[in-house]
Amino acid sequence: xxxxxxxxxxxxxxxxxxxxxxxxxxxxxxxxxxxxxxxxxxxxxxxxxxxxxxxxxxxxxxxxxxxxxxxxxxxxxxxxxxxxxxxxxxxxxxxxxxxxxxxxxxxxxxxxxxxxxxxxxxxxxxxxxxxxxxxxxxxxxxxxxxxxxxxxxxxxxxxxxxxxxxxxxxxxxxxxxxxxxxxxxxxxxxxxxxxxxxxxxxxxxxxxxxxxxxxxxxxxxxxxxxxxxxxxxxxxxxxxxxxxxxxxxxxxxxxxxxxxxxxxxxxxxxxxxxxxxxxxxxxxxxxxxxxxxxxxxxxxxxxxxxxxxxxxxxxxxxxxxxxxxxxxxxxxxxxxxxxxxxxxxxxxxxxxxxxxxxxxxxxxxxxxxxxxxxxxxxxxxxxxxxxxxxxxxxxxxxxxxxxxxxxxxxxxxxxxxxxxxxxxxxxxxxxxxxxxxxxxxxxxxxxxxxxxxxxxxxxxxxxxxxxxxxxxxxxxxxxxxxxxxxxxxxxxx
Length: 493
Fold this sequence. Notes:
It is a single chain. The protein has two domains: 411 residues, 3-Layer(aba) Sandwich (Rossmann fold), CATH 3.40.50; 58 residues, no CATH class. It is globular and about 90 Å long. The termini are far apart. Strand 5 and strand 6 form a beta hairpin. The chain has a six-stranded parallel sheet with strand order 1-10-7-4-2-3, sandwiched between helices. A four-stranded mixed sheet has the order 8-5-6-9. Helices cover 49% and strands 10% of the residues. By secondary structure, the chain is α/β, with parallel strands linked by helices.
């Protein structure tokens, strides 16, 4: 446990980095009109459901503040609560393992499965196991991992990647899902329709035998209660309940920040989470267990994977409050248009833009350094966050860190820095600034040659082309404000 509170050097972080920067990946996604239609329809539906159930609670703001305070208490005393959790799990017959990073967690889980002799495991939907790339690690060891959550199953059968925290297959529509099932699911009815009930029944038939045969199950955990050692999984389909109860061995991989101090603290989050995530008053299935139950062997893997480094940043640690509800994704205009894959990480959207760079490190040459800029800073994510994470302020902080990291690796100033220095020099003197504004009218020459129907400037020469490559500029006025002010004699008054 000596790693707690200390940045982990060069961790094997798993699926927290993409192969492209966000601008490059988003550019491709924006050209996919079907993707935008799928995302727009799904996020609008979830937003509307959430708004209805949140409006029912007069004390929603107080609940939100309570959730934030509980999470901050955990982060302030994380070492103490983790020790308490370990003691309780051990006292109830479980085994606790500590993993510094993704590689270590995968090694632990793979070893535990191999020890049982199983060649196949069933999985409850888990962001932590996606984060570390557990399925790929198990496959490399000759062990098949079967996703049992419907959306995760769709992603797995489609040889795809999740694009949403709560609804991993949100980028797929019903007809696409039907074709995936027809192509990949053994024994499926060739006349399968795209009706939701028919698709769910096909998945149920496919998975039922897997549940009954499985000797090992792997889960995540939504919450862990330090005072009792109790873990909780909330879900909507019942597949989690099957995985948690039927197999002889249960392995849970949990981020070290998922703690709540007491049993009573749990009641706050069991109100906040379902309303913020699925737009429900309560989750259909809430499963809780303490240690080894009903003859199972239980193993808890506590995962750091950059969380200690995130905790060390006073202005960034609030990202660890996140309860993975995905409310911020559903209101984000950038996510709705670019989709989750553009973020590269298993954590997309606004929370991914602040969490992923902190978990992996914000070096100047990493693709994750572009994520804090994947936002309009509209503030909608903060308004809906059930634990009041101030994501916009955190994005600005991380942007500053990204710029500082890039500056530290360069000997010469960038074109942007040179331009800002020139502007600062001009604005420091009234005469210089007046002349600069007058010189800006030269932009009308470019406007006349590269203007759109509205007169806006579409193209400028390098290095200004970097701006007009993604944005339009209004043409400069024929007369500056300062010149107008002098001409009309307003300076005398």
